[in-house]
Structures are given as C-alpha cells and as structure tokens.
Automatic annotation (TrEMBL):
It comes from the Bacteria. This is rRNA (Cytidine-2'-O-)-methyltransferase. GO terms for molecular function: methyltransferase activity. SUPFAM superfamilies: Tetrapyrrole methylase (SSF53790). InterPro entries: 4pyrrol_Methylase_sf, 4pyrrole_Mease_sub2, rRNA_ssu_MeTfrase_I. The lineage of its organism: Bacteria, Candidatus Scatousia.
Length: 157
C-alpha cells in the first residue's frame, strides 16, 4: 500500500485541494518558499525521522499557530497519526521515538477564525502606526500568546 494514499484517507481535510511536494527542501530558505504556498492549499510532504523535528521547528517559526498532521508507519502494524497545532506536535514527538516512513501535512493557513481574528487585530494595530514590538506585546498580553511568536509572525509578513 502507498503511505500517501493511506494518509489522505485518515486525515480530515476541509478541501480536496492539496499540494504534494515529495520531500521538503533541506535548506531553510527553500523550505520557507514551499511553506508559503500553504496560503492557498494544504501542503503534503514526506519527511525522514531524522529531519522531522527540524522541519516542525521551521514550520513553527513560519507560523506558530499552524495546524499539522503527521502520519508515521502508515502501512504497517504500529501506524500513528497526530493532528494538532505544531507546538503540541513537536512536544509529542520529543517524547516519542521517531522511526519509519513519515507523511506530513501543513494545513492551509488561516484555517480557523482565531487566526483570522488575530490577523485583523494585527492589521488594525499596524494601521494605527504601532510598531511590531508594541503589537507583539499588546497581542501577547490580550490573548495569552508568546510575545516572540507574535513578533516573528509580524516580521515575516
């Protein structure tokens, strides 16, 4: 059986549209270029157990609110699928041994209303001439977010 087909049958998706990229590029800048496409559709990729943690860290830097799905050993007896935000997924795989073939998916950006709401608030504060540092401090305090995560998101826009 094919791991990609098995993965697609096991993870919920809001749209049938997705982009399959095979293995993500090894350099951070090339990987970020690929991840920016997630604005339009879900991105599905293969990853090695040795690189999964660094890939998840890069996704977290790109979008600390990202929702991901990671499937492991999908056509085998000990298959596992984790669907969560990227930070919880990193925590999960730090606590569990990584082996075998891995299929991952970065869900389309701004999938839920909270992300859209945050984007609206960022844009409102920007329109009032607040600086990125001030915006990150304000939103972190109001929404119990990590100030550095909000700041990183701001400077990537």
């Amino acid at each position: 059986a094919n791991a990609l087909v098995t993965f697609l049958s096991q993870v919920p998706r809001e749209s049938e549209e997705f982009t399959f990229v095979g293995f993500l590029p090894k350099t951070k800048s090339q990987m970020l270029d690929v991840l920016k496409k997630s604005q339009k559709s879900d991105i599905i990729f293969y990853e090695s157990p040795n690189r999964l943690m660094s890939t998840l860290e890069i996704i977290s830097e790109y979008n600390p609110y990202a929702k991901v799905a990671i499937g492991r050993e999908l056509t085998k007896m000990y298959e596992e699928v984790v669907i969560d935000n990227v930070k919880n997924t990193i925590k999960h795989f730090k606590e569990n041994t990584l082996k075998g073939e891995i299929v991952g998916m970065l869900y389309k950006s701004c999938e839920n209303e909270d992300d859209l709401d945050l984007e609206e608030k960022i844009n409102l504060l920007k329109s009032k001439n607040f600086k990125a540092k001030e915006i990150s401090t304000i939103l972190a305090a109001l929404y119990n977010l990590n100030k550095n995560d909000v700041y990183r998101r701001l400077i990537q826009e």
